[in-house]
Amino acid sequence: MSSVLSASLLLGLILGISAHRAGLCTVKAVAEVLTTRRGWFLWSFAKTSLWTMALLSFAGALGIAPTLGQWPLNGPALIGGVLFGLGAGANGACSFSTLARLAEGHLVMLFTLIGWPIGMAAIHLAIPDLQYAPLAARHLSGWLLLPLAPWVLWEVTRIFKRFGDEGMAMLQSAHWPLSFSVAVIAVANVGLLLLTGPWSFTSALICTTHAVPLASCENPSSVFAISAAAAIGIAVSAMLRGSFRIRRIRLAAALRHGSAGVAMGAGSVLIPGGNDGLILFGMPALSPHALPAWLGICLGSGVALVILRAFGRPLMAIRCNNDICRATL
């Protein structure tokens, strides 16, 4: 095993653990806004992209920044965002959190995973003439670090102060502070961008169907290996936290999650990408389609949650305190 692959697998493992301990999820973010009118999770997603942008700008100043693909803003991207969001809302989880809930024993999420490639293949077959014309790849200028530097220093100071107060207890806690988690996720993500290029769970699934000519699909073995490492990280975190418990699968839930997976898969082809890729490298790379598509995901998730609530399904309760958020169904 090469040193690059070994380092990439370690970074994928770290990314999976931190994402699970933070409980990051776009559906949770929308549910938090709907139920509490607050946006701790939404701000954490923004901070993940800002951290990634700052680190990529620093790499640009050193002359080692990776080139990242750009996708145009168009109708399919917006429709795909809303469609992905509708599926994620019905599923109760987006990309990372689907695997997180599966790792905690929600076996019904297997139907979501089955639905994803079906939805991807369906769009690929139904609209074979759908053209993907990426814009010229670019890397971020080191000058972007200047306006971000004060915020980065503020965040670093806060993280180190908290670690100084809590020590290793912070890492051993069942739930990590959001500020710390998103910083770790961004560092691991930028490490992967420098070593192997863009990666996300959604892109790995897209590569299996060849529905979109993503740059990451040029080296699919690395994408699948990193995905496996991140999934293992999520599973290890769930086991250490003691949150693993097998939940019985009900037929109605299986149908709902399977259909949700189809919608998420179809939406990811239209975007192209999922909420994970948009946050981890789409928005940091300033791709024109990224922010509008992600807002479409938030809109679709909100519509799905409102519809489910109208049919008597309660929204998940989000409780945030001292930079730590917990969700209960």
TrEMBL record:
Native organism: Pseudorhodobacter turbinis
Protein name stated in the entry: Uncharacterized protein
Keyword Membrane on entry: yes
Coiled-coil residue windows: none
Keywords: Membrane, Plasmid, Transmembrane, Transmembrane helix
Short name of any one Pfam family annotated for the protein: Sulf_transp
InterPro entries, A to Z: Sulf_transp_TsuA/YedE
Residues that span the membrane, as ranges: 45-65, 107-127, 139-157, 178-201, 221-240, 252-271, 291-311
